[in-house]
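Homework-ish question, so no full write-ups if that breaks the rules, but can someone show me the predicted structure for this set?
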Amino acid sequence: MPDPRFYAVAGPFTLAEIAQVVEAELTAGADPERRVSDVAPLSHATPEHLSFLVNSKYIEAFAACSAGACIAPAKLADRAPAEVAVLTSENPYKSFALAAQLFYPVPVPEPGMHPAAVIHPTADLGPECRVEAGAVIDAGVRIGARCLIGANVTIGPAVEIGDDTRVGAGTSLSHCLIGARVSIFPGVRIGQEGFGFAIDRGGHVKIPQLGRVLIEDDVEIGANTTIDRGSGPDTVIAQGCRIDNLVQIAHNVRVGKGSVIAAQSAVAGSARVGEFVQIAGQVGVADHRTVGDGVRLAGQTGVTRDIEPGGTYGGTPAVPIRQWHRQSAQLARLARGKAAPE
Amino acid sequence: MPDPRFYAVAGPFTLAEIAQVVEAELTAGADPERRVSDVAPLSHATPEHLSFLVNSKYIEAFAACSAGACIAPAKLADRAPAEVAVLTSENPYKSFALAAQLFYPVPVPEPGMHPAAVIHPTADLGPECRVEAGAVIDAGVRIGARCLIGANVTIGPAVEIGDDTRVGAGTSLSHCLIGARVSIFPGVRIGQEGFGFAIDRGGHVKIPQLGRVLIEDDVEIGANTTIDRGSGPDTVIAQGCRIDNLVQIAHNVRVGKGSVIAAQSAVAGSARVGEFVQIAGQVGVADHRTVGDGVRLAGQTGVTRDIEPGGTYGGTPAVPIRQWHRQSAQLARLARGKAAPE
Amino acid sequence: MPDPRFYAVAGPFTLAEIAQVVEAELTAGADPERRVSDVAPLSHATPEHLSFLVNSKYIEAFAACSAGACIAPAKLADRAPAEVAVLTSENPYKSFALAAQLFYPVPVPEPGMHPAAVIHPTADLGPECRVEAGAVIDAGVRIGARCLIGANVTIGPAVEIGDDTRVGAGTSLSHCLIGARVSIFPGVRIGQEGFGFAIDRGGHVKIPQLGRVLIEDDVEIGANTTIDRGSGPDTVIAQGCRIDNLVQIAHNVRVGKGSVIAAQSAVAGSARVGEFVQIAGQVGVADHRTVGDGVRLAGQTGVTRDIEPGGTYGGTPAVPIRQWHRQSAQLARLARGKAAPE
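A: Not a homework solution, just the prediction itself:
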């Protein structure tokens, strides 16, 4: 059970309420007025709990569980113990996410400007914002309604932020326009100059970086991630992207809608990442390269050439994932002193 | 000699005092009442100094040194010049560390709450803490005795910190319980939400992250490192771990006692790192994988499968280090156009 | 055109003024008194604009452009449309950089100490400095003239900073001496203890880190980068280096004059990087290794042995770049099941 010092549980909720919120159907015979008071994994769930089966490898735990109710795919529903009410879902993982959100809604920040925040008189904040101690908000900043600006955040001149956006502690923003419902985690750096200069033995010459960072709606940006502003064009993170911790997004990069980038990956200058791309951890995309829509990149992949839409890639230089597995196998074979390929 | 603007030297100390602290024995004939006033490397040491031989490749420098005294392994003690007092140690590097700590003890922070710190009235701080300017400590926080909370640190509601822990400038902590004698360097991010959501074309759905981060006693966490809280289970860094800068520890990870993780490495969600594991820089451990006790991973290794206890590994995917060296050699051979394996 | 909320344009300037500043020559027939009012890429430039041809692959756009004037290499000047004034340069990219700096000079910060900055009475700041809200400057700090200390910056005791240096928001500095005209981006960590301890089953023993970080003049350090202080020797970043975001520089490292290190690269303890070295992203240099002057390292390279001056390298372990390309090609060939080398 979540530590009550940190998390407050809502509910209890009836199965009928839950079914509606989580986009699931209650199987015949279950009592829609039955109430559960929390979520729990299969191994820990009691009759008070809603649990979930998202992966068929946990089918035994499901068949033996003591939960009051359980979200599961329809085809596995009949494996539940008789006393467990089953909520069938086409996307049990999503349904679980929605259920967990129902029981543990993100707390609404109590509005108010802490007296130890420093807000420039020309900054314009919407209703019901919360600005915590030590936050510094500069001239001409515009912030929407119900935003949370964490402690020790720094927001530079003329930055704009949409409604319901949250900015974590110690983050700094400049030269950027941020959308609505964006989650920016602690220590993020957005809008500093890109890494651009003319190499010169007499002293490298800085190229002024005159673009912005545009963060569209519903984006999440992980802790200590860095997103440089464009050199002339903008750096753009499109709607719904999820970026993990310690990621580097260089100047002029465009990341398409719904893409996911795991920790410590980097997209170099002017590269393009398509829509709904999935990038695992520690991946590098070289400058000016394009990664097509829907591509998946395995951990530590190095993209040195453009990649067509679709497909999964691994290795440095990146190759189709099956080829990468064969390469690894052949290499192991060579190292054992066997004649190379069959 | 360390710059006196930044470091104050203690002492002088007698060789008898030093021998006791550094777990070494003074060789016969040396005067236990002789005093030295500082530590110095072999090449710079004068009769005022204590020096050290930790690696036999410096044996010539040792044999020619002018130090007043020197820590060395017993088997090399007779190589010292006659006028150098030798302190023999089974672990000269550890003895050197202890000697350096003797001459350069970590300064005790002067207790006090800076008037520009913002401490919630319900926060409970132990005796002799120092809280620097701009630190923001939220409701219900509990901090032990003699802690140092650096400037511009942010500590979220209900966080607990043990005795003698130090939190570097600009760090942010939330949803975590921190042990005693922990060193957290500047810019660290602990306790933010893990990277968890159900992928959905209509918009990825956040999975509430309802666990905590537990940092046990005597852990060190490097600058700008990020440690996400668990999704339901906790993220745990066990007693005595040493984590370097810019490391990523994802949700639900457990790092066992005494493990060491060098800079820019990442341990992905729900992975397990055993006890006394040594992970070099830029290593990635994939999600849900286990790295057994005592394993060593070379720089840039990519762990994609579980690794048994013991052994040294390299490459992506990780293979035993000798195999990795053979693979590299065979690959070089192939590139030279030679018939592959011998 | 740059967003006027974030950027103010200077000028207009005559072509004669521009030619002098950008180290270019106005071709015969062009009117030196003609004025242009902004810079723009070839595709967007109108007769009001100065544009630039830095890469011959844009020659068609150059030949068709509508710019008022254009910087180009002398050998391509005759390809410009008749109505475009051409400024010929031996280094058009550098000339463009200088032109962009002319039109978009870095704004001079308005001097002043924000009342919400916390400056120790013994700190000594030169004339015309700007210290923003939430900055914390400790005892004995010395800062030169015209420096910008950003919001929520923390500067530890006795740190020294030269003239015209800028320190970005949320950065922390300790145990370091910083030169003149240095640009430190937000979230940078300089001077914390290096990662040094004697491994011991009973508890690793910290080795006091008694050196400093020396940052020479004209260095740029990217966001969230970490530079540890030396253990006894200093960590040194020599004059004119450019370091990108999220880079790790360990204790005792020396990076030579004019070297460039891209994002997420790491230089491990006591390694030496020569002068004018170019390191791409996600590269690792192992501890105690030397990378010679003028070496170039491709993205994700892992340097495990010393590298002689000059030459380009790739792969892990690093090999000459041509060998790396051959290795990759042979590996792909093996994976296709072909007999290995030709």
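Now go work out the reasoning yourself. Hint: Chain B is about 10% helix and 25% strand.
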